[in-house]
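Customer escalation, tier 2.

The customer says the design service returned an amino acid string that "doesn't look like it belongs to this structure." They asked us to rerun it and document both sides in this ticket. The original structure tokens are below, unchanged.
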């Protein structure tokens, strides 16, 4: 059996200790992060998460040894890319991902790096006086000319496509133009929690869209409950109010006299009477003087209708939506 260095055994044991101590374990890529920036990120994560860099094979050994107690954690081994490190925390995976994404900053493009997205030079004034820089722009494929005493880019141009390598000349040109197209930060590849592994594409949630979806789902559920007359704490008052309103409308339409319907029924009858009178008012002797006077003083109006829109319930619904928003905020806050 090959001899295993003592420091490797100690390293695996320390990694196992971290994995056993925390409920949420992740794999991160620290590739291309300057030492100073990484140090600042570590400080910002103090008391929130622990980052431990190590060799991939040692991390894999630690994961295998911990798999008996934390089922499926060994699946993290499938996401070892770049300069791998272990991250451990008690935060839920979605909150951890958001914190790491928010901590990323823009950085210059270095020669030899691969562009994750198209690198674009915008149209407009570069701020440079006429000189050799005009030729530099044209050499890297950026259409430029002199306009009003300044070097101007004639149209928006993609200088490096996503997946392509940044050349030394392009990197120097972008740096001179103060264009920082690269995003630098801790890249979370996958996270383990309660026997499940979440990849970055699952953790990348559009908060505004998710909140809108939840609010829309609440509105749809609220309307379904009201229309199907399924009483809940949120909908019972609306259901009762709607039933009352519909009952009044039925009473008015059927001329059923009650203390609630008598006034609108009389008003409806009078409106119809005045409408008929207005149609025959021009015929000699068709209406008497009293009715003619009423026609001259009262505009013929449409019959009063009891509205079924219950505005006072809007406030309660908005309050419930705010509660839903607060719940989502707790997930990402």
């Amino acid at each position: 059996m090959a001899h295993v260095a003592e420091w490797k055994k100690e390293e695996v044991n320390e990694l196992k200790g971290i994995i056993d101590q925390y409920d949420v374990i992740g794999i991160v890529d620290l590739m291309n992060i300057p030492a100073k920036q990484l140090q600042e990120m570590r400080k910002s994560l103090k008391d929130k998460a622990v980052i431990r860099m190590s060799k991939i094979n040692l991390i894999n050994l630690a994961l295998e040894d911990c798999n008996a107690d934390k089922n499926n954690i060994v699946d993290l081994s499938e996401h070892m890319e770049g300069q791998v490190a272990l991250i451990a925390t008690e935060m839920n995976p979605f909150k951890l991902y958001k914190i790491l994404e928010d901590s990323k900053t823009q950085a210059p493009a270095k020669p030899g790096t691969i562009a994750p997205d198209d690198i674009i030079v915008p149209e407009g004034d570069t701020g440079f006086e006429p000189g050799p820089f005009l030729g530099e722009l044209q050499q890297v494929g950026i259409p430029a000319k002199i306009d009003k005493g300044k070097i101007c880019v004639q149209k928006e141009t993609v200088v490096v496509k996503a997946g392509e390598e940044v050349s030394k000349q392009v990197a120097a040109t972008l740096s001179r133009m103060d264009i920082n197209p690269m995003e630098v930060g801790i890249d979370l590849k996958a996270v383990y929690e309660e026997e499940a592994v979440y990849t970055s594409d699952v953790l990348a949630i559009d908060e505004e869209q998710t909140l809108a979806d939840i609010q829309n789902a609440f509105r749809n559920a609220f309307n379904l409950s009201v229309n199907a007359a399924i009483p809940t704490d949120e909908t019972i008052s609306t259901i009762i109010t709607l039933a009352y309103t519909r009952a009044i409308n039925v009473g008015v339409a059927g001329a059923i006299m009650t203390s609630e319907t008598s006034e609108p029924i009389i008003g409806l009858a009078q409106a119809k009477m005045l409408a008929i009178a207005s149609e025959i008012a021009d015929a000699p002797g068709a209406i008497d003087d009293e009715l003619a006077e009423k026609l001259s003083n009262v505009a013929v109006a449409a019959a009063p209708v009891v509205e079924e829109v219950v505005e006072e319930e809007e406030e309660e619904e908005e309050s419930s939506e705010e509660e839903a928003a607060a719940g989502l905020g707790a997930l990402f806050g």
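Tier 2 assessment: The sequence is consistent with the input. The radius of gyration is 36 Å. The longest strand covers residues 187-193. Sent an explanation to the customer and offered a walkthrough call.
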